[in-house]
Design brief:
The complex is a heterodimer of chains A (311) and B (316).
Chain A: H1 4-13, H2 21-26, H3 33-42, E1 47-49, E2 55-57, H4 59-80, H5 83-96, H6 100-109, H7 112-126, H8 130-137, H9 143-151, H10 162-177, H11 187-195, H12 198-212, H13 225-234, H14 236-247, H15 254-267, H16 272-283, H17 287-294, H18 297-310
Antiparallel strand pairs in A: 1-2
Helix pairs in contact in A: 4-15, 4-18, 5-6, 5-7, 5-8, 6-9, 6-13, 8-9, 9-11, 10-12, 13-14, 14-15, 14-16, 17-18
Chain B: H1 13-24, H2 31-38, H3 43-57, H4 61-68, H5 71-81, H6 84-97, H7 105-112, H8 115-129, H9 133-140, H10 143-154, H11 165-180, H12 187-195, H13 198-212, H14 216-219, H15 227-240, H16 242-255, H17 261-271, H18 276-287, H19 291-298, H20 301-310
The chains are: A mainly alpha (311), B mainly alpha (316).
GO biological process, one term (chain B): response to heat
Pfam families (chain B): Annexin
Protein name (chain B): Annexin
Chain lengths: 311, 316
C-alpha cells in the first residue's frame, strides 16, 4: 500500500505548471507494482475504471502531462535560440494559430533593429517575407494593422514634434469617439500607431489624456488588436506583467500558460528588472515568489534563475 | 551593367584628395579636374576619398563641393558623391515632401533597389531626418496612394529564387479579377504587389499573360489618364523590367519643355553604377538616337560633361 502522503505528493507533482521531477524520482521510482496499483485506484483525478477491469489513464491527462514535461525543454530551446530566429519562429507559429496578440507583442516591444533582424531571419527560415505571410494569412480587419506593424522601422532618436503629437492625439480621440467606424479601419489611426516613433507616441498618449480626460487604453475595446498594440507601445512593462499574472492564474488555459515561458525568456535580458518591479507593485507579491508558488521542478528552477539574473 | 569607366590603376585616395583640393583653389574651380576624378570612381572608392579628404582637410568633401560649385553641375556632383544609401534617403525625402500623384520616385526607389539597399536607405533616413521614411510617406500621402506607398517603402521582400507556381497562378487570377472589376485599389492587389518577392511576381505576371491573353500592364491601361493605374504600371515595370521604366523616365525628362534636370540627374547618378548600359540600349532601341546625343543636345557646359562621363561617353 502506498502512503497517503506519497500519493498526495505524486498527484501534486503531476498537476500544474511543469512537473516535480524530484518527487517523481524519489517516490514513484521506489514503488513496487502494488503501490503503483493503489495509486491508480486511489487517484480518481487521473484514472478511471475501464469496463474491462483495469485502471485506465485519462487521455486528456496524458496529453496534459506531455505538455507539462515539455515546458522545461521548450523554455531551454527558446533561451538558446538567436533572438532573431526565436522571434521569427514565434511569429510563424502565432500566425498559424491566429494568435495576433503575440505578433503584436513582437512587433511593438522589440527595438527597430531587433525587429529588422527578425525579418531577416524569417527570410532564411521560411523563404518568404514576414509581411507577405501576414498579409496572406490575415483576412479580417486586423490585416492592415498587423502588416504595417511587422513592417515598421521606427525612428528611435530623441526628436519629437510636439505640435504634430498634439494634433495626432486629437485625431485619435475623434476616431475613437466615432461610433460608426471601427477605429482599426481608420487609416489615420493605423498610420499614427504603426509609423510614429515610440517617443513621439508617448507624447501623443500624454496629449490624449489631456484632450479626453482618460488614458487612451480606457477608451478602447477590450480584446482588440488596437488596444494590445497601444499597450505594448505605451507601457510594455505593464503589458508584460499583466500577461504574466494571467498566465499564473488558476485555471489558465494552455495559450495563456505558454506566455509565462515566452515572456520570461524573451525579457530576461531586456526589461526583466522593470517587469518584476511593476509586477510587485500591481499584484502585491514578488514575481519570483509567484513563480515559486505556481510552477514545479526543473521548469520552475530554470525560470527563477532567469528572473533573478537581472533583478 | 554599369557604364562607369574606372581606370585600371587609379591614384591613391590621398592623391585624389590633393587633386580635388587643387581644383577648388585659386580663381574659380577646375570643373574638368573634378569630373576627371569623381566621375571615374565607384561607390567604394568615392567613400574612401570622402573619408580621406575629411581626415586631411578637416572638412567634408560635400561641403567643399557645395561651396565651390553651382547650379545643375553642383547637384549632379553632390548626388554622385553621396553614398548610395544616403542618396536614396535624400531622394526619398525630396519626393515625399513634394509628393504629387504623378510623382513616381518613391515607387522607383522602393522597387528597383534590392531589399537590403532599401533597408539601408531607411536606416540612413533615420539618421538624416530624425523620422522614419514610412511615417513621412504616410503623413504626406493620402487615399489609395498612401495604401500603396506605405507598405511599398516598408517592404523587405524575400530575395531568393523560390517560387510557388500554384500561388503564382492563383494570384494572377486574383489580379485579373480585380482589374476587370476596376478595383485597382483592392487590398489583395496591393498585398500581392507590395509583399511578394520579385521572382514570385515575375512568375505571377507570366501566368497572367498566359492565362488571360494580355500583359498585366495592358489591362492596367483602361484609363490612360488615371494616375493610380499609371502608378501600378510603373510599379510592375520597375519590378520586372527596370530598364524600360528608366528609359521612359529619361525620355520624359529630356523631352519636357526645358528639360527636367533634377530627374535627369537623379536617374543618371542612381543608375550609372548599376544598369545604365541596359538603359542606354533600351533608349537607343526606343528613340533611334543614342542617349549621349539626346543629353548632349539638351544640356550644356560642365553639367553635360559630367552626365556624359557617368554614362560612359568620352575618354576616361
Amino acid at each position: 500500500m502506498a502512503f497517503p502522503q506519497d500519493i498526495d505528493a505524486l498527484t501534486k507533482a503531476f498537476s500544474g505548471f511543469g512537473v516535480d521531477e524530484n518527487a517523481i524520482i524519489w517516490i514513484l521510482g521506489k514503488w513496487y507494482p502494488e503501490q503503483r496499483r493503489s495509486f491508480r485506484k486511489g487517484c480518481s483525478q487521473f484514472f478511471w475504471e475501464d469496463e474491462r477491469l483495469f485502471e485506465r489513464w485519462d487521455d486528456n491527462h496524458i496529453a496534459f502531462l506531455e505538455r507539462e514535461f515539455l515546458r522545461f525543454k521548450n523554455a531551454m530551446v527558446l533561451w538558446i535560440l538567436h533572438p532573431w530566429e526565436r522571434d521569427a519562429r514565434m511569429a510563424k507559429e502565432a500566425l498559424k494559430n491566429r494568435e495576433y496578440d503575440i505578433l503584436i507583442e513582437i512587433a511593438c516591444t522589440r527595438s527597430s533593429e531587433e525587429l529588422l533582424g527578425t525579418r531577416r531571419a524569417y527570410h532564411s527560415l521560411f523563404d518568404h517575407s514576414i509581411e507577405e505571410d501576414v498579409a496572406y494569412s490575415v483576412h479580417d480587419n486586423n490585416r492592415n494593422l498587423l502588416v504595417a506593424l511587422v513592417s515598421s522601422y521606427r525612428y528611435e532618436g530623441p526628436k519629437v514634434n510636439e505640435e504634430i503629437a498634439k494634433k495626432e492625439a486629437k485625431t485619435l480621440w475623434e476616431a475613437f469617439k466615432n461610433v460608426n467606424k471601427n477605429p482599426i479601419e481608420d487609416g489615420e489611426v493605423v498610420r499614427i500607431i504603426t509609423t510614429r516613433s515610440k517617443l513621439h507616441l508617448k507624447s501623443v498618449f500624454n496629449h490624449y489624456k489631456v484632450v479626453s480626460g482618460k488614458n487612451i487604453e480606457e477608451d478602447l475595446e477590450e480584446d482588440s488588436s488596437l488596444k494590445d498594440a497601444i499597450q505594448c507601445l505605451s507601457s510594455p512593462k505593464a503589458y508584460f506583467s499583466r500577461i504574466l499574472d494571467i498566465a499564473m492564474m488558476g485555471g489558465a488555459d494552455e495559450k495563456h500558460k505558454e506566455a509565462l515561458t515566452r515572456i520570461i525568456v524573451t525579457q530576461a535580458d531586456a526589461y526583466m528588472k522593470e517587469i518584476a518591479e511593476e509586477y510587485l507593485q500591481q499584484y502585491g507579491v514578488s514575481l519570483s515568489q509567484k513563480i515559486e508558488e505556481t510552477t514545479k521542478g526543473n521548469y520552475k528552477d530554470f525560470l527563477l534563475t532567469l528572473v533573478s539574473r537581472g533583478v | 551593367m554599369s557604364t562607369l569607366v574606372v581606370p585600371e590603376s587609379i591614384p591613391s585616395a590621398i592623391e585624389d584628395c590633393e587633386q580635388l583640393r587643387k581644383a577648388f583653389q585659386g580663381w574659380g574651380t577646375n570643373e574638368k579636374l573634378i569630373i576627371s576624378i569623381l566621375a571615374h570612381r565607384n561607390a567604394a572608392q568615392r567613400k574612401i576619398i570622402r573619408q580621406t579628404y575629411a581626415e586631411k582637410y578637416g572638412e567634408d568633401l560635400l561641403k567643399s563641393l557645395e561651396r565651390e560649385l553651382t547650379s545643375d553641375f553642383e547637384i549632379v556632383v553632390l548626388l554622385w558623391t553621396l553614398d548610395p544609401t544616403d542618396r536614396d534617403a535624400f531622394l526619398a525625402n525630396e519626393a515625399t515632401r513634394k509628393w504629387k500623384a504623378t510623382n513616381q520616385v518613391l515607387l522607383e526607389i522602393a522597387c528597383t533597389r534590392t531589399s537590403n539597399e532599401l533597408l539601408s536607405a531607411r536606416q540612413a533616413y533615420h539618421a538624416r531626418f530624425k523620422r522614419s521614411l514610412e511615417e513621412d510617406v504616410a503623413y504626406h500621402t493620402t487615399g489609395d496612394f498612401r495604401k500603396l506607398l506605405v507598405p511599398l517603402v516598408s517592404s523587405y521582400r524575400y530575395e531568393g529564387p523560390e517560387v510557388n507556381t500554384t500561388l503564382a497562378k492563383s494570384e494572377a487570377k486574383i489580379l485579373h479579377e480585380k482589374i476587370k472589376e476596376k478595383a485597382y485599389n483592392h487590398e489583395d492587389v496591393i498585398r500581392i504587389l507590395t509583399t511578394r518577392s520579385k521572382e514570385q511576381l515575375i512568375a505571377t505576371f507570366n501566368n497572367y499573360n498566359n492565362d488571360f491573353g494580355n500583359a498585366i500592364n495592358k489591362d492596367l491601361k483602361a484609363d490612360p489618364k488615371d494616375e493610380f493605374q499609371a502608378a501600378l504600371r510603373a510599379l510592375v515595370k520597375c519590378l520586372t523590367r527596370p530598364e524600360k521604366y528608366f528609359e521612359k523616365a529619361l525620355r520624359l525628362a529630356i523631352n519636357k519643355n526645358g528639360t527636367d534636370e533634377f530627374a535627369l540627374t537623379r536617374i543618371v547618378t542612381t543608375r550609372a553604377g548599376v544598369d545604365m548600359k541596359k538603359i542606354k540600349e533600351e533608349y537607343q532601341r526606343r528613340n533611334s538616337v543614342p542617349l549621349e546625343r539626346a543629353i548632349g543636345s539638351d544640356t550644356s557646359g560642365h553639367y553635360e560633361e559630367m552626365l556624359l562621363a557617368l554614362i560612359g561617353h568620352g575618354e576616361s
